[in-house]
Amino acid sequence: MIDHSSGDSTTIVDGATVADEAARFISAGVVPHVIGGERRESIAGGQRELVNPSTGNTFGAVADGTAEDLDAAVQAARQAYDDGRWRHLAPREQEARLHRLADLLEQHKEVTGDLDALDAGILRRYASYISQYSANALRYYAGWPTKMVGQIPPVGPDYVVQERVEPIGVMGVIKPWNGPGAIFAQVAPALAAGNSVVLKPAEHSPLSATYMALLALEAGIPPGVFNVVHGDGVVGSALVAHRGVNRLSFTGSVGTGRALAAAAAQTFKKVNLELGGKSPVLVFPDADLETAVAAATTTVWNNSGQVCTAGTRTLVHRSIYDEFVDEAVRVSQDLTVGNAFDPASQLGPLITPAQLAKVRSYVELGKSEGATMRFEGSVSCSGGNYQAPVIFADVRNDMTIAREEIFGPVMSIIPFDDEAEAYRLANDSEFGLAAGVFTTDIARANRAAAALDAGTVWLNCYQVTDAAVSYGGAKASGYGRSLGAPALEEYTRRKAVWSRNY
Ligand code: ADP
Known about the structure:
The chain is an alpha/beta fold.
């Protein structure tokens, strides 16, 4: 169990003021896997340094697993599933424990916020929001165990058929580093449906997963029901290949998602894929310009562009194009890029030096392909993986910066001449994750919502989410839905039971 005794007192870790509890969690030794309800080091003794993206400094270590650790976690999950310690609990009791976990997460979201800010460089105030998002998902799914009803389809008088909704077994969940505390978007529906879970967080952002798995034990989720194994893609691919895992949920890059889906096919595992995006934000001449500029810029600067739904292609009608670009530059002029813990920072660091180099290469590519770099902000601090916000104007939709996911604070503004062209450009992308539309013409808004090839369309808003609303992509952005009632379909299966009446 976690020692919560330190209350509100704080400690300095790598120059940042963090909750005592977060500091103790890191300094207690190598941050472990959680397998079968126990804190475990790696069987082969492997560990990985924890590096702070805001400073480049090492501040601790986490267990670095192998296929052997993964296998131990799958066995623990399988045993917990088979003996029914969770799925056979009374549904009202499952609900009570999931609510307790949501309570605990809300009570300790300052700790998880500190952990996500330290290992993933998530802006400290945004990190608490991510933990709250996870708590909201738990709260939403906590209501479901008593409501997982099946059906009795009509088949005539000779038989009665119960179509039962059952858990699937052991769920494998693989998560990326850009919102590490958001694990319950996938883990909560899996648990609510009665499954056991093996979670592999991203190797760069492991801390909050271990902490949250320990909170789950404290809330009464039985040992072995929610396991965490740390490691890189080797552990991820072992999870995908493992015959004891029945179903997968993957959030990450397109390349890894494609390879993962192919590998999963070998053992007939269905996969939920939440991949990247190159989402368009359409701004029509009748839009409220101030609202549109604020939303279109915020979505790209948010989490330094490291968000799947970032609206990185801004499509603006030519009649307001110059004014829009000027305004986008003006509102971005004074943004502060800096340490995730500095309250003045509006953009934090990128996750790794490699990610920074990748983003920089896209910026160079944008210039060499002929886009006009209208703005590059400044970075006043050193040591971390900092990229200033960049605005490109005169971007064509066939330029690489408009086609590939950059995952950094790079905005590309593309002109269009009429509504049909706007939809054609918006849909001319490998991706189909999300889209935004800014217009005060309700008929146009409705036409746009129907025309856009995306899993989510926001009209006069952007990146609003709620655990009750399902989320997912089209095309290379993946398949399957997370959140809301539709996600439960992904974590359950149907069984038809026929009984004879004669
Ligand atoms: P990114 O480029 O965002 O790091 P990835 O898609 O490579 O994206 O990583 C997302 C998650 O997938 C991480 O937890 C990572 O360790 C894991 N991963 C990487 N390669 C594989 C793989 N071959 N099989 C399964 N998981 C993998």
